[in-house]
Amino acid sequence: MTQRQSKAKSIEFHDNSCFKIWRASDMLEDSRMQVEFTNEYAVLRLARDSKSKHICPIEGICIGAGHVALRLRAYHRDLRHYLLESRDAADLPHILSKVVSGVQELHDLGFVHRDLKPDNIVLSEDSKSVALIDFNRALPVQDQSEYEDLGTPGYQPDSRHWKDTDFNWDYWALGAIILESDMRPNDYYQVASEKDAKKVASKHLAHPQTSKCIKKIVKDTVLANADAFKADSADLLI
Ligand SMILES: Nc1ncnc2c1ncn2[C@@H]1O[C@H](COP(=O)(O)OP(=O)(O)OP(=O)(O)O)[C@@H](O)[C@H]1O
Ligand SMILES: [Mg+2]
Fold this sequence. Notes:
It is a single chain. The protein is of the alpha+beta class. The protein folds into two domains: 2-73, Phosphorylase Kinase, domain 1 (2-Layer Sandwich); 77-237, Transferase(Phosphotransferase) domain 1 (Transferase(Phosphotransferase), domain 1, Orthogonal Bundle). The protein has helices spanning 24-29, 31-49, 79-86, 92-108, 167-182, 194-205, 212-220; strands at 2-3, 9-14, 17-23, 58-63, 67-73, 77-78, 111-112, 121-123, 130-132, 139-140. The strands form three sheets. Strands 1-2-3-5-4 form a five-stranded antiparallel sheet. Strands 6-8-9 form a three-stranded antiparallel sheet. Helix 4 runs antiparallel to helix 5. The longest helix has 19 residues, at 31-49. It is globular and about 60 Å long. Adenosine-5'-triphosphate binds next to strand 2, strand 3 and strand 5.
């Protein structure tokens, strides 16, 4: 069994499954963790019932004396590791189009992910199976909520005109992930704000080798302003 984290939540791999484990004591004390667990479980159940292809399949739920664990299909690595260690330019469009489909499936279930980033996308060893994970920040789509600083800098817009419970929040992150996948390993890593992301994106778009398709997606997402946002351009990858 291998373990990846040592905080309130941890990930363990066992018997070809991945266990996302929540400590019961933390859940009892922290109402926010209860909400996060409930949302993650709700998304995974809905995705299973609707036979989603690109949302990580839940295989069960395990309740022990001191913890509760979600049993998930184990994938080989996340997209962050793929981009750093195993990147293959010929495979990337297929991988990214499956990520776009996964986001579409999640939105069709009525949820916004709110923390899309390469670490929250997993791949099989041959990279043919691709799935979204980590739904504990997901929320049902709604209009009321304003920007909340909950996601990951570099993968969320930070101007106050964006709503974090709107599908556009995820499309912005999707644009950042597609941009990062088209850049050299580590070149996006230092990006920690919307302003940085826009600077890096403009530079990448000025490069003669950047394709028209990437230019359109990045212009319509990372470089767009909230009021001029066009969510449909990531469909170019499908
Ligand atoms: N089903 C899975 N298959 C393979 N690896 C996984 C799987 N689920 C999680 N992982 C790995 O464990 C890491 C952490 O999992 P996850 O993102 O669900 O939790 P978390 O990041 O601790 O949650 P949060 O960011 O909300 O604190 C992922 O980035 C990924 O590397
Ligand atoms: Mg995560």
